[in-house]
Amino acid sequence: RDYLEDLASATGARKWFQDLTLKRIARTSTVPYSRKWVYDIAVTHNSTFANSDMVLHNSITISKAGIMATLRATCSVLAAANPTFGKYNANLPLSEQTKFPLPLLSRFDVIFKLVDRASDDLDYRLADHILKTHKVGEIYRGMESNEITDYSISEESELIPPIEKKLMRKYVSYARSKVFPRLSDQAIDLIRNDYVRTRKRSTPDTTPITPRQLESIIRLSEASAKSRLSAVVTREDALLAIEIITNYLENVSSVDGIIDTNIIMTGTTSRQRGELESVFLIIKDLLKESNYAEVSDVIAEGKLRGLDENKIRGIISKLKSDGQIYEPFDNKLKVVS
């Protein structure tokens, strides 16, 4: 209540809160819940979410391009994003190259980066496929309108999918609704042993795998079994899932060949976070002796701790953008209290 009153007074927006009623929770209790999913919702203090469909009805309402729809929130998510700067930069963490919030980005089971590199063989096959597909598509349009009646597309038969679209949809629908594979003992042993072995490679600066990736391996193992319409997750299913997760972590969440899931979880490696904390503490220590921390003094002290000037300046910029410090005057820093 005090916070809201202070906020209203400071912003001159008391009318916003005139109809607000505060109630204390009298008691809590456990209620039966038969659905599969449980939601963990993190909300900032200034977010309006009480009337959100996600909270009330487990659904999401979208309005885009003249389309109004309400979708169930209990669904898989396949998302795609272009690099913020137009081209993927292998030297920057993924979180700095997309507009996905870190809490959302870290919840995907797998993330793949598609980098466009020149390759004579791949470029030839890709161009050939696109051109032939376009040609066959125009032929089909002509045949449907009776403009073309004497053409055979047998020479482009390799473009015809081996499984008809309608049959594929039935297959996927059946697998999702009728097949519920369980982990075999062999799959459990393989996943557990691989998880423990990978965790042993942890260092004070890196975390190669977390329970979140363990759950991803389980889901991918079950998906592999479902794709075979199998009621049992075999050792081969588990091995395939482990290979996929390992490949994803090596390509998206590694530094100098060392896997560190902190890159996805927090946007920085453990080492980078340690450097941020070190520079922040330097600024706080300098403020004990003066009203402001001179940037030159921060750089000098940082060099004594093994950091180069460019890195220190970059850390200062990040601390300012994160709202931990500010610069009231040129080259003079203060901590946000």
Automatic annotation (TrEMBL):
GO CC terms: MCM complex
Family: Belongs to the MCM family.
InterPro entries found in the cross-reference section: Intein_C, MCM, MCM_dom, MCM_lid, P-loop_NTPase, WH-like_DNA-bd_sf
Protein name: DNA-dependent ATPase MCM
Domain (MCM C-terminal AAA(+) ATPase): residue spans on this chain: 53-130
GO molecular function terms attached to this record: ATP binding; single-stranded DNA binding; single-stranded DNA helicase activity
Annotated keywords: ATP-binding, DNA replication, DNA-binding, Nucleotide-binding
GO annotation terms (biological process): DNA replication
PANTHER family reported in the protein's UniProt record: DNA REPLICATION LICENSING FACTOR MCM FAMILY MEMBER (PTHR11630), DNA REPLICATION LICENSING FACTOR MCM4 (PTHR11630:SF66)
Keyword Flavoprotein listed: no
Source organism per UniProt: mine drainage metagenome
